[in-house]
Design goal:
The complex is a heterodimer of chains A (329) and B (392). Chain A is mostly helical and 329 residues long. Helices cover 74% and strands 3% of the residues of chain A. In chain A, the strands form 2 sheets. Chain A has a two-stranded antiparallel ribbon with strand order 1-4. In chain A, strands 2-3 form a two-stranded antiparallel ribbon. In chain A, β2 and β3 form a beta hairpin. In chain A, α1 runs antiparallel to α6, α3 runs antiparallel to α4 and α6 runs antiparallel to α8. The longest helix of chain A is centred in the N-terminal third of the chain and has 30 residues. The radius of gyration of chain A is 20 Å and the shape is globular. The mean pLDDT of chain A is 91. Chain B is α/β, with parallel strands linked by helices and 392 residues long. Chain B has 2 domains: 224 residues, 3-Layer(aba) Sandwich (Rossmann fold), CATH 3.40.50.2300; 129 residues, Rossmann fold (3-Layer(aba) Sandwich), CATH 3.40.50.2300. Chain B is 41% helix and 20% strand. Chain B has 13 helices and 15 strands. A 7-stranded mixed beta sheet of chain B has the order 7-6-8-9-10-14-15. Chain B has a 5-stranded parallel beta sheet with strand order 2-1-3-4-5, sandwiched between helices. A 3-stranded antiparallel beta sheet of chain B has the order 11-12-13. Chain B starts with a helix and ends in a 9-residue tail after the last helix. About 4% of the residues of chain B have low confidence. The chains are: A mainly alpha (329), B alpha/beta (392).
Chain lengths: 329, 392
Amino acid sequence: MADALTRSMRASHVLAAVLVVASLGFAAFGAASGDTFYLRLGTEALIFAGLALSVDILLGYTGLLSLGQALYFGLGAYLSALVLMVTPSFWAAMGATAIGAVVVGTIGGFIANRVRGVYFALITFGMAQVIAKVVYNTRALGASDGLIGVPVIDINLGLFKISSASPVGFFLVVLTFIIILYALAAYLLDTPFGRLLIALRANERRVPFLGYRTVTARLAAYVIAAVIAALSGALYPMLRGFVSPELLFFATSGNAVITVVTGGVGTLVGALYGSILLTLFKSVVGSYTEHHLIVIGLLFMGAVIFLPRGLMGIVRPVIERRLNRGAKS
Amino acid sequence: MTYKTTILAALLSATALVSAQSVQAADPIKIGVVTPLSGTYAGIGQQVRWGLDLATKEVNAAGGIMGRPVELIYEDEEANPSVAVQKADKLFQVNKVDFLTGTVNSGSTLAVGQVAERAGKLIATTVSFADSITADKCSPNVFRVNARAGQQSAALAVWLSKEKPKANVFYLGPDYEMGRSTVAAFKASAEKVGAASTGEVFAPLDSKDYTQYFGQMRAAKPQVLYTSVAGNDTVRLLTQMQEFGLLNNLTVVGASGTVTAQNLPAIGKAAEGFVTGVGYSAEIDTPENKKFVAAFKAANKIDPDLYGADSYGLIYAYKAAVEKAKSTETDKVRTAFNDLKWQTPQGEKTLRAGDHQAVQTMYVVRVTGGKFSIVGQVAGTDAIGPDACTRF
């Protein structure tokens, strides 16, 4: 008999599968109608979903509120842009980003994990601000103008190649990539290591009595989140052809936290749904009124007050009950 | 709120996926405007909108462009390049705009320029200052109708060489990338016209106390101080200099954002005599400008600034180009834009074919009696500088 956590994660997987099916339908419809804008918007939503996923690993599982996850997203975006401008290879960009994220994530993790609670939030915020300012003032990185001219690349997937300029092709690549990140995160969090992270969130003081080193687990969670954020960020310049220091600013980190809270903290799949909803919503509302930030702020407040467990808080229990009924009969 | 209804109509037609858009004579020419309507640069975006709205109203009242009315479609870019790119993509792909403008910060202009290149459309900026947009990062699809930073500092340097030949100049800039590059640019133009540099110092942004730099400044015995600090930093710098008696026998010149209508009242007497180079001033004494200022004031109850005036002028540039090309097709309009001459409130402008930069008469303004007044003009050809664009 599976425990409560495994059961609720199963419900998350069902919702992820629904998302994949819906996305494939959307891609087919987009391809048939020759649409470019909505496919690219969807791709961007999925890229930011990867960032939200990394926030959820920290916030929903380990209980660490990071207000500076944009640091790793931006790191990935800049590394990928720089690599692509030298050699237009998807795998080289991703490899460089993964290595860079492990190194920077470990250093950042050592600094941030010295403290906890609100101090952790502040120190992650501070680190991201410092790096953002450094990038903003470095001529070699394009300073405040950012880097433009990231070339369109052909992504070599062994059997065939997909151009990053193809709206449908690149949408499917990003969808696959983000779902793999989701699956990896879900798998990791279901292992004993994942249970340890949840134990950290529940009561960090008691964990050492069970014979675990909390520092290592926290650091590992931090580095994993950093890598996921950076790999998502690495996709950004392939989609848009440029990077700018605004990607490292607090607005990016803050949006990711809002996404997770709206979608449902600690559900993983909530990050994906949250990002798609928020991106779509911003685009539509933003076209009607310049006061769109107020509208989104009000909706966020409404979500926190009336849906404290996020969107997934309503949807997931229903699916869970159905799954249980199915298992019993 | 007519723009809302146009956006609504555009969205509805787009979401209904109406692809059969046969161009009829009365179909509007659509111009997308991606500009900051919220956030730090909302004030600039507001001027851009007022300028564009006014010109569009005038053009439509006079029969539109080639008999077709002009329609503006606004999108808020929040002064963030990643938002600007998304909105530009929408305007190109969903609203099918013929032309795009409005970007304010240089990062947005560069990024949106690239989107335009990939979509095969043209854009123009009416605000961004960064020289790179029409120099090393120039694009065949990007035009600039306002004066770039280099033109402003070149105009100031030319004025300086006439008024204070072979002056000793001291430089004080804010310590960040943009501050350092503006100082370097002015230093280069000033030295070219014979000024001697006696020293430079960079103070952190938002400095409370500038007196620590005064010793160095005094020892350098400058006749002219160039500064590119802005906002409240200028208030503190100039008032502290006045308290220390450093403003006597010293001409203070600066970047166009150093002393503005916003911080001028707070600086008060210490701003007296401050000189800067600009591409537009509401004080320009020509019939065209007087007419423009009156119309702008009647519509918006406020004087136009350079952003409003340059945005206003852009609509007429686009009108002239489309009428010359007899088409809104990208390649034809691009050719028509090359070396196009057209009339704006600040006089005739020419779009240089080599780098897509507007050449225009530059003005030197001085604060006198708490108000800006024009003290000199520099011919467009003297301020423009060499064509540094190598891409086309």
